Amino acid sequence: MATYIVLGKLTDQGIKNIKDMPNRRAARQKSAESFGITLKDGHLTMGQYDVVFMLDAPNDEAVAKFVLSIGMRGNLATETLRAFSDDEADALLSQL
Length: 96
Fold this sequence. Notes:
Layout: E1 2-10, H1 12-16, H2 21-34, E2 38-44, E3 51-57, H3 60-73, E4 76-83, H4 86-94
Antiparallel strand pairs: 1-3, 1-4, 2-3
């Protein structure tokens, strides 16, 4: 499984309904599982992004479906990063 970092910004709708965040968190977990994704960690953050979560996924397509399903709800706009562990990075670098 590959690791991904999802950065999220609350939309106007998301901030208006911020008190629903615990329920949205539960829905996010269920959605992740439906795509074969393990949600490893999530944080409410300060700064450029409002939330950050890390996940393990079988492939890019599963992540794309997951973040699109989040966007469809209208509460969060996301940016997704593929994260390489030190071992994965070393394996890539050894092939250069």
